[in-house]
Amino acid sequence: MGVADIADDIIRLAEEARDSAAEMLFEPRLRLGVTGLSRAGKTVFITSLIANLLQRGRMTQLRAEADGRLIAAAVQPHPDRETPRFDYESHLAALSANPPRWPESTRRISQIRVSLRYRPTGFLAGLTGDSTMHLDIVDYPGEWLLDLALLDQDFTRWSLKALKAAENASRAPHAGEWRALIAARDPAEPFEESAARPLAAAFTAYLGACRKAGLSGLAPGRFLMPGDMEGSPALTFCPLPPPVGRDPLHAEFARRFDAYKRSVVKPFFRNHFARLDRQIVLVDLMTALNDGPAAVADLSDAMKEVLGAFRPGRNSWLASILGRRIDRILFAATKADHLHHLEHDRLTAILSALLSQNLAHAAFRGAETHALAIAALRATVEQEGDGIRAVRGRLEATGEEAALDPGELPADPASVLAAARAADAGPAGTGWLDGAFKVMNFAPPRLSRGEGLPHIRLDRALEFLIGDRLT
User: Fold this and answer.
1) Rounded to two decimals, what is the model's pTM?
2) Is the pLDDT of residue 282 over 80?
């Protein structure tokens, strides 16, 4: 650990002590991180969570609400004036439009505060009166969470992992141009910026194609959302094979890789991630199952990186700040409304299996973890008859009503993981989930005024994440 890293820790500890003292003297707050892998629905989740806290008729599994102790909720100005605000009002307007539409995905960090006034339990409740807790919701891209793994790697180690991943069945079709440029270069040539830019552009295009295909483990995350850093040297590099002899381009890319960690990754985790108390990771497992075994295998690899984000190496710069503050982590399989409710337990079991097979790589240092199948906004209703268990909703592509029987998920989640890891895993079709499983994209439902947004288990998710802080 260098001098700069020690200074970072000293500053962080001082800020935490200041924040803790303020919370003890005034009103407590809980920082909830919300992130999601590709197409998992972060924006809809946060919008529905806030809407259902403001109108709590559908939140019966949130104990404080069920007990009549949750008195009021209100969106409040956040004391942090530098981080962009989550645009709740615009996202809710999109869902409430005629016809309703899915809001635009967010590609940057944002936050919003919801203040909850509640009646505490216990023998002191009558003496202290009502209490207030500020729920600070921090929204950030899942790719930024995956970036954490870079901090424990040097350029050569990261390059080897990335090049190997590009050989996987799900990624190889998107990596051809980038890998051809690597193979064609002369390692002995002097470094030229004109040679670096095409390699970085091809690598960025590869990551973008993987994201468009629904793949999950995409890092470095800022390559896909560069913002005002677009074109900077810290974003102009790519993985390269280990050097054999002198390789000026490899040496320069290694320096840029270190610059990316120093100027992009460390500030984000120091200023935002390290301050979180609770975390929810949204996972679009439904789409991966629909896309086939290669997509599930890719998701499993991404989950390994996500789990590892909460357990850095003992000598890591982040070892002292992760795993101690975050004490509850919820992994939520989204879009459960695309399945009949009798399949929800199987969806949860598959997600739990994905997590458990990677738990050996991530001891959570006391953090409580849980898996759950949810739909932050229920877009379908169930329809049964003649042996069919279908879901009905408006198709996103046409706006027309349609009923779909998506099929059954396997009762044994191990069979899904085994198929996903098979060496010759191919695309979805015969032999994958018996060739019967299919998912459609539904449009948002038409909302009724004066009611919270319809959902599946959003209240149970919130009870796990914050319920103990409302007692």
Assistant:
1) 0.89
2) yes
